[in-house]
Amino acid sequence: MRVPVLNMAGEQVGEIELLDTVFAAPIRPGLMHQALVRQLANARLGTHKTKTRGEVRGGGRKPWRQKGTGRARHGSIRSPIWVGGGTVFGPRPRKYTQAMPRKMRRAALRSALSVKAGQGEIVVVDRLEMERPRTKAMIQVLENLGVNGRRALVVLPERNWTVEKSIHNLPNAKALLSGNLNIRDLLSHDVLVLSQGAVEHIHGWLG
Question: Global pTM?
Fold first, then answer.
C-alpha cells in the first residue's frame, strides 16, 4: 500500500510504502475488543473500599437491653441495617489486571492500524519539527495536513519536546511515541498522523 508523504505545509513531497502485514492485516474486531478491555482494566487502581460493621467507628455497646423494652433486639448501632452502619458485600481493594499474550496484543494493533488505513485515516508527514513550542503554529500545521477539527493522534519516532508541548494544549490532538502505540489511543482518535520515522519504527516492531 502506497500513501502520499506530505510536508508541514500540506504539500506532497513523495510517497511511502506501508507494509501489508501491518496496515493491511486481517481485521479481527473480537481481538481488538479484548485488547481494549484489557488495557482499560489494567488502568484501574482498584483502591475502592467500604467499611464493614467491624470497621465503622462506634457501636461497641449494646444500644438497649435484650428484653422488656418493646423494641426489636439489637446488638450494635453500626449494624448494616442502621443509618451510619457498616456496608455488606461492599467493594474491597482488588486487582483488575488481565493478561494477554504479546502476539495477540500486536495482532490487535495491526488490526486497528489496518482499519485506519482502509478508511483513509492515515496521514504521513516527512518530518515534524518546531524551533520552539507554539500551539498556534501546530494548529496551522494540522490545518495544512487536513486533520484540524478531528481527533488526531500524532505519532513521533522519538521524544520531541517542542512538538509535544505544542500539541499538549490542543483538546483534539495527542502526541505519542511510536513505541507506545496502544489500542485505546488508536480507537479513540479519528485520524493518525505518522512521521516517516514513526512508520519505519512501526514496521520494525510490528512487521
Answer: 0.86
